[in-house]
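Good morning C.,

I know you're traveling, so I'll keep this short. The sequence:
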Amino acid sequence: MMLAPHALFLRRWLLQEGTRLFRRKASGSMVLTATLRLPSHANIERNLVRTSNVEYFSTSCVNCAKSRELKGKRDISEKKLTRYFVDHRRVSLTGGKGGKGASTFHSEPRKEFGGPDGGNGGDGGTIIIKVDQQIKSLSLVEPLYRGMDGESGGSKNCYGRNADHTYIRVPLGTIVKEDGTVVADLSKHGQEYVAAFGGTGGKGNRFFLSNENRAPTKATPGEHGQERVLHLELRTMAHAGMVGFPNAGKSSLLRAISNAKPAVAAYPFTTLNPHVGIVQYQDHEQVAVADIPGIIQGAHRNRGLGISFLRHIERCRFLLFVLDLSGPDPWAQLQDLRFELEQYETGLSKRPQAIVGNKIDLPEARANLSALQSRVPQRIIPVSALTGHNVEELILHLRELYDGYLQTEESAGGQPVRW
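The tokens, ready to paste straight into the viewer:
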């Protein structure tokens, strides 16, 4: 039933007035009783000329809606970071089982001896370890994986469907070990390693058709998938690694030169997990700096945090020895750090390096700096992570070490790691 234009406009106007009164009532600005002022015939004609189509209206009330503000991201505490960060996993893997072959014979009217038509089964799913640069920890890796089974074969020479592969995504720098032997070193984005092969699908009776046997009934089941137990270890991929004793100011220094937010406190072993910060340069180059947890004497014997975090230094291309200038004998700290690295891996302490003297803003640090410079022939960069003193010199020297690393890799024909 078609409505007249006047009735259509009047209906629309009544809906709008009712909605307006309901909004005013909801906001508490009026009482229940209200009078409606109907428009005159002339106003209706004028409005019909202006609008030919019926307009839509919204029943949402801005005054009654809740104010929605963007919530800032909360900083994760060091305790939660310890819970989420995992750098080693033991994984049991079992490839998918192949589908079984079918034993059937073709049958249709006026064709009694159609012959065997059983199809082969599909292959089982393979388990593949794949590197994803967006993942930073092994916490998402499950302890047990089983590949999907292949589909069984069918009649009319129908082959079973091959099962899909199962992917385990791991971060850059993951090492795969089996029985203590390294079987894969995953250091590139998108790199894959086949961890467990799926079983081959079984053969249908059509496969066994021959001149000697025209009606075979034999069909084989699918093979079982490969079973392996692997150990995954994560070694942080960074250009530079900060090495120092506990409470030397490594986390504060990483905050000063990058946007990383590691936990900072006035007690030793504040950092329990490696943190990676990115130093930005004007030519869009990025240098990754890793804050390694504090090392103590005897770390190569697994004292303190020990070997579990010494292995993160293996991937660093150059080192930053962070010394506490406010403490006694900072030159002894440097000797102890080099000794621990050399005992853990021969030649590790001889990589390109820089010596950073932190906490230069304290009064006793000036005298220790002079004594350190007289005993150590290498260049020493005094900085203050708290006040930001001389941080620019450290950033420039960090770029020099990075450029040297690029030249060395390119001259050797290798591919340097870029962030």
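Safe travels,
E.
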